[in-house]
Design a protein that fits this description.
There is one protein chain. By secondary structure, this protein is mostly beta strands. 9% of the residues lie in helices and 51% in strands. It is built from 3 helices and 16 strands. A 16-stranded antiparallel beta barrel has the order 1-2-3-4-5-6-7-8-9-10-11-12-13-14-15-16. The chain is globular, with a radius of gyration of 22 Å.
């Protein structure tokens, strides 16, 4: 794609909402209006996730790496996340969001620590613009904070697609909004991304990644939503792609029992793997290196409301994922049974206990591609 075309796309991306907003005839309320609200407004956020880990895999440490020789650390306490964030509303339409993870300082912080750093301007419900470093909408997990997901952590496919520039924290711009088509509510997101991860000084090539997500509300009663994702782009003059589909639902079984389910499928080019290999150690076609995965996450919730205990949840995510299924397949199956005790509202306090069980088609000694049974107890507090 030529440089001129890049410029045109970015220009249209930012100028189109101005025309759309002008057509609505919406004008801001005068500053001396009785209904005016004082700005800026600040909201501080925080999250602590502390863990105890114990590996029951043979010669596998708590990070999931196999060791054929030497001592293996199979039990450890850990601070998974220590996030501090600030949401600032500069006006009714403008907000700036900053989020850092201080737990990243425990290892090399290069390319880490800073997570969200973006500004968002909302013209109306039909369109809002976001620019900076943020999580582009490309699946279920991108729209849900890690502290309220129904498992210990995000899926394997989430992190692998993040390494390839589609999910997790990326630098770029995005347009989002929603519209009703008949009785069906539809929300959308269109993103233009550097595609080389967070906290980068600049793009590592002239290629950009273009991603979109569309969500169709199929049932308001049972909260059934169908999501479709697609993306194309270039990495070092090589064409890359990603596609996905997902569905969510939430059924109220009784006054106290609810059952929700998430199913998500993704497939795409694994350009991160392709360019990590020496030229003599890979095929000529980048399309030979593709990743593919699907997961099911059922969750049963029981409202307790006894003293400080709010709810009890039982979940078990099953995931099947392969990061190179065409050239060198090695399917990874991950089972994550978990029980969760919720204290306060909206997971203000949470205690989780369960396992992450990994099974590979082929064990590769002295790597993370090795069968493992990891026991976890996780304590969470959020502000």
């Amino acid at each position: 794609m030529s440089k001129n075309l890049h410029v045109i796309i970015v220009f249209v991306f930012f100028i189109l909402p101005l025309f759309m907003n002008a057509q609505t005839g919406i004008e801001p309320a005068p500053e001396d209006s009785e209904s005016s609200v004082k700005y800026p407004q600040f909201q501080f956020k925080g999250l602590l996730q502390a863990r105890y880990l114990e590996s029951f895999g043979e010669n596998v440490d708590v990070l999931g790496v196999h060791h054929s020789t030497g001592e293996v650390t199979q039990s450890s306490f850990d601070i998974k996340r220590m996030r501090v964030g600030l949401n600032t509303k500069l006006s009714e339409a403008t907000e700036v969001v900053i989020l850092v993870n201080l737990a990243d300082f425990k290892s090399d912080p290069k390319g880490k620590v800073l997570e969200n750093a973006y500004a968002k301007y909302t013209f109306n419900k039909y369109i809002a613009l976001t620019g900076g470093q943020f999580r582009p909408a490309f699946g279920i997990e991108e729209l849900v904070p890690v502290d309220i997901i129904k498992s210990f952590d995000f899926s394997n496919q989430y992190y692998e697609f993040g390494k390839n520039g589609w999910t997790s924290f990326q630098i770029g711009a995005s347009a989002t909004g929603s519209v009703d088509v008949g009785k069906i509510p539809i929300s959308y997101a269109i993103s233009v991304l550097n595609g080389n991860g967070r906290n980068q000084e600049m793009d590592n090539d002239n290629g950009k990644q273009y991603a979109t997500r569309w969500v169709f509300g199929l049932s308001k009663v049972h909260k059934i939503n169908l999501g479709l994702n697609g993306g194309i782009g270039k990495r070092s003059n090589q064409k890359v792609f990603a596609v996905g589909a997902d569905i969510t639902s939430d059924f109220k079984l009784t006054d106290k029992f609810t059952f929700d389910l998430q199913i998500e499928y993704k497939q795409g080019t694994n350009q991160n793997l392709y360019f990590s290999l020496p030229p003599e150690g890979r095929t000529a076609k980048i399309d030979d290196y593709q990743m593919r995965g699907i997961y099911f996450l059922p969750n049963l919730r029981y409202l307790v409301d006894y003293k400080k205990l709010t709810a009890l949840e039982l979940s078990c995510r099953f995931e099947s994922f392969d990061n190179n299924f065409k050239t060198s397949p090695n399917l990874r199956r991950t089972y994550t049974p978990m029980i969760s005790l919720e204290f306060g509202k909206a997971y203000t306090g949470r205690i989780e206990m369960g396992f992450e069980i990994d099974k590979y088609d082929k064990n590769i000694p002295n790597t993370a591609y090795y069968n493992d049974n990891l026991f976890l107890i996780q304590f969470q507090c959020r502000l």
